[in-house]
Amino acid sequence: MATGAVKARGKSRTWSGSANGPPRLKIVRCPGHWEGDLIVGSNDSCLATLVERHTRYVMLAKVNGKDTKTVINALIKQSKKLPRELYKSLTWDRGKELSDHKAL
Question: Is residue 8 part of a domain?
Answer without folding.
Answer: no
